[in-house]
Amino acid sequence: MNRIQNLFGIAYPIVQAGMIWCSGWELASAVSNTGGLGIIGAGSMYPEVLRDQIIKCKAATAKPFAVNVPLLYPSIEEHMATIIELGVPIVFTSAGNPRAWTAHLKSHGIRVVHVVSSVKFALKAQAAGVDAVVAEGFEAGGHNGREETTTMCLVPAVSDALDVPVIAAGGIGDARSVLAAFALGAEGVQIGSRFVATIESSAHQAFKERVVAANEGDTALRLKPLTPVRLLDNAFAQKVAAAEAEGADSETLSELLGRGRAKRGMFEGDLEEGELEIGQVSGQIDAIQPAARVVEELVNGYRSLTKGMSDPKFQW
Amino acid sequence: MNRIQNLFGIAYPIVQAGMIWCSGWELASAVSNTGGLGIIGAGSMYPEVLRDQIIKCKAATAKPFAVNVPLLYPSIEEHMATIIELGVPIVFTSAGNPRAWTAHLKSHGIRVVHVVSSVKFALKAQAAGVDAVVAEGFEAGGHNGREETTTMCLVPAVSDALDVPVIAAGGIGDARSVLAAFALGAEGVQIGSRFVATIESSAHQAFKERVVAANEGDTALRLKPLTPVRLLDNAFAQKVAAAEAEGADSETLSELLGRGRAKRGMFEGDLEEGELEIGQVSGQIDAIQPAARVVEELVNGYRSLTKGMSDPKFQW
Questions:
Q1: Which one, of A74, A75, A82, lies nearest residue A108 by Cα?
Q2: Helices B76-85 & B47-60 angle (0-180, nearest 10)
Q3: Fewer Cβ atoms within 10 Å of its own Cβ: the N or the C terminal residue of chain B?
Q4: Burial category of A217 from C-beta neighbours within 10 Å (exposed 0-12, middle 13-18, buried 19 and up)
Q5: Nearest CA of chain A to the CA of B225: how many Å?
Q6: pLDDT per position as a tens digit, B68-115
Q7: A139 to chain B: which residues are within 8 Å by CB?
Q8: What is the mean pLDDT of residues B213-234?
Q9: Are B153 and A171 a contacting pair at CB < 8 A?
Q10: Has domain A3-203+284-304 been given CATH number 3.30.360.10?
Q11: Which of B153, B180, B281 minimises the CB distance to A216?
Q12: Are A132 and A215 in contact (CB under 8 A)?
């Protein structure tokens, strides 16, 4: 047992990322039931939707699960009140100041984890009292840090700087990258893209199939003057790229983005005009699988790799 | 012994990157003498300088060493003729079409390795007949790919796509990242930044000290419309960033860059107006050491980590 397994009370230190439009109760409960940690992504949910999702998740699993709340969410007070009222045991916060809610949540016995993209933000999260951090590298899908530090460089740096345990995120999709994350100093991994391509993910079927079809090089970090976000290439992403090449400011990009593009792409399946948030690791995902199968493959593959360290390839 | 050790005839599959202005015969021979593979970076050398460097390197070590040649180098015929004449056993090529020189070099018994930033270029290099590829991620210093694929995502993807062995580069500076690279499928690592900060590196002392002082987040990929290159932040890098934010085209950036900036920064020690090429991993480098000490630390640390796989942190 390592510190992340102990902290969450889970069999495997594999966390399914809370993702807008993709991770509802079906995915979260499936992952938790298999022994990992499932997360409901509250960023795309109205308060009454989140309440319903938590109730359904609790009915579907007796195991620990979490809710991810972006700290800039407009109705955050309602989200947090629901989380506390319904006894959610673990909260992952992201995109905001960890001092805002950490102490309050912890006073209700909730474990709090904050997502960071740099050593500086990791130290701030630790000072705010979080139980662990997710160190998320440049290769991750969706919203991303301005430092552009990759998982390979971020995880050792954050591990060295903090006392609390580190969960690695960004670029992790198979047993090899799970082992790499642990080698770098992580005690857990958070995986997003691979879980988008599961049966239980609430992503639109067309988006799941697009993720499976993606090749290396098909994503890029866009909308940097606004908020950096990693997107799959499509008509919308190309419009953004063209505007950025001309030096578009955040206002212009905000107009181009408009409202509801993420829902349109990931939930409604508009593969050309929607915003398709996914990580670089999508290039290596080649099947839509049950979430339990994904967890099993990661655990078995990881165990096999660590046992295989006596192979001549690793011994020198 | 793995395939990279066999291919080069070296004790440890640790390659010191060929770097302009930083890796002459003193660094290359020191690394080769310790059991890794040292590389002379020919991209910043006039033909007569390269000849002199190879002669000195051969006098300083009886072990295998290599020369790195950027394929866009203007006097490349002279470089290649010198390499063949003086019996250099291994050539690393980069930044150009691997079909141009691979067959010719191999017909003289030279091992050829090409540096790639994507699966597409890796397949082209293999088709050109190279003996191995270096898969270099976005976090690497200096010239970089347009795909922005990180080491964590690039190495597994290239390993899966190729039959020839893969050397991982980008973000590798300590034993943890060496093990991560091997976990991802590499059979060797190429390390640049850490070797810039060695006694034997020909980098200016002020640049070495700046590398040691660097923190996570201090580098960025600049000059993308021209050729993407990872630079340490300084007055020059900020001018470039400002121009890029206004949508500067390649011509404007080329004028801003001018001539001789890399030499000015890395070799002459102008830390504000020079071009300081270095990787993200510079944030974790905290001492200027003898090259042999670096190799020893990496080898001993790696062995200790692989033996430590029975630790509860790794066993779940």
A1: A82
A2: 30
A3: N
A4: buried
A5: 9
A6: 999 999 999 999 999 999 999 999 999 999 999 999 999 999 999 999
A7: 138, 149-150, 152-153
A8: 97
A9: yes
A10: no
A11: B153
A12: no
pLDDT of the residue at B97 = 96
Residues 6 or more apart in contact with residue B33 via CB below 8 angstroms: B60, B61, B63, B292
Distance (Å, whole) CA B152 – CA A180: 8
Kindly list the domain boundaries of chain A, sorted by start residue: 3-203+284-304, 213-281
Distance from CA of B112 to the nearest CA of A (A): 21
Q: Are A184 and B184 inside 8 Å of each other by CB?
A: no
Largest CA distance in chain A: 57
Pick from A247, A284, A316: CB nearest B245:
A247
Q: In what order do the strands lie in the sheet with A111-116?
A: A14-16, A188-191, A166-169, A132-136, A111-116, A90-94, A65-70, A38-41
A128 pLDDT more than 90: yes
| Two tokens, residue A45 | 């949910």
DSSP letter at A198 equals B
Query: What residues are paired with A190 via a beta bridge?
Result: A15, A169
User: Domain B3-202+285-307 adopts which CATH fold?
Assistant: TIM Barrel (3.20.20)
Q: Which residues of B touch A138 (CB under 8 A)?
A: 138-139, 148, 150
- Name the minimum distance, in Å, from the CA of A130 to any CA of chain B: 20
| Amino acid in position A202 | S
Question: B306–A283: do the CB atoms touch at under 8 Å?
Answer: no
Contact by Cβ (8 Å): B115, B124: no
| SS3 at position A113 | strand
Provide the residue type at B160 as one letter.
D
ipTM: 0.98
Q: To the nearest 5 percent, what fractions of chain B are helix, strand and coil? A: 45, 15, 40
B197: amino acid identity, one letter: A
Contacts 24+ apart (CB under 8 A), A235-238: A235/A272, A235/A273, A236/A261, A236/A265, A236/A272, A236/A273, A236/A274, A236/A275, A237/A276
Q: Cβ(B297)–Cβ(B304) under 8 Å?
A: no
Do B176 and A156 lie within an 8 Å CB cutoff? yes
How far apart, in Å, are the Cα atoms of B252 and each of A45, A244, B145, B248, B282? 46, 17, 21, 6, 29
- Helices A47-60, A25-34: crossing angle, 10 deg rounding: 30
Contacts of A306 in chain B (CB under 8 A): 309, 314-315
CB atoms within 10 A of CB B103: 12
Alpha-carbon distance of A39 to B14, in angstroms, equals 40
